[in-house]
Structure formats: structure tokens, C-alpha cells
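Hi R.,

Here's the chain you asked about this morning:
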Amino acid sequence: QKQLVESGGGLVQPGGSLRLSCVASGLDYYAIGWFRQAPGKEREGVSCISYSGNSTNYADSVKGRFTISRDNAKKTVYLQMDSLKLEDTSVYYCAAGLLRKGSCLRGFRYLEVWGQGTLVTVSS
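And the predicted structure, written out as C-alpha cells:
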């Protein structure tokens, strides 16, 4: 069964850090993307990492603050979020799919499986 499970969300003050995890099962050789959706807003892409980890990409709004990584032996993708801002408050989802030409810069050809989401709240 193909499945993604996120964890690591919570309440953090502005300027703080959180690390999200996305554990995959039944999904080999897939790229993983992190997405987020705030109340009343459309879902947006946050970051992407290829299966090898050689290709990554970030939304402009999180560049320099968020870092994506993966440990394929543990079937886990991480999103390290530093210097969090109020506007980072969202439900964060990970999704697995195939990339166009194997590059995060070219985006996903399709996304096959989504996790259930984990809530990140940045508040003082």
C-alpha cells in the first residue's frame, strides 16, 4: 500500500524552528514535494527533492530558511524550517510523484500520493 505520513508540526514562536518528517511506504524511486495550505488560501508548493537527493528546489518565500533532505534507508524526507514567520502558518503536506526529466526545477509530471498533513502554527 502506497502511503505517506507526516509528523513534526506544532506551535512555535516567530524566529523558531521545526523539523517536519514524511515517512513513505510502498513508494520507491519517487520524488517528494512539500506543499502547504493556509486557511482561505490555495495550496502552494514549498520544496521538492528528487529520489537521489541531487535535485532540490524551494519556493522564493522559504529560500534560505527551509532545507529539504532525505534518508532513503529510512524512507523519510525531512523539511527543516528555521527563522519561521507568522505567514508560514499552514497545514503542510508531503506528496510523492515523478519529476519532469528528473529535475525539481522542471516540476512534477504528476503527484500520485498525498499525506494527511501536519499543522504548523507560528504565533507569539
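The two ends are 40 Å apart (CA to CA).

Let me know if you need anything else.
M.
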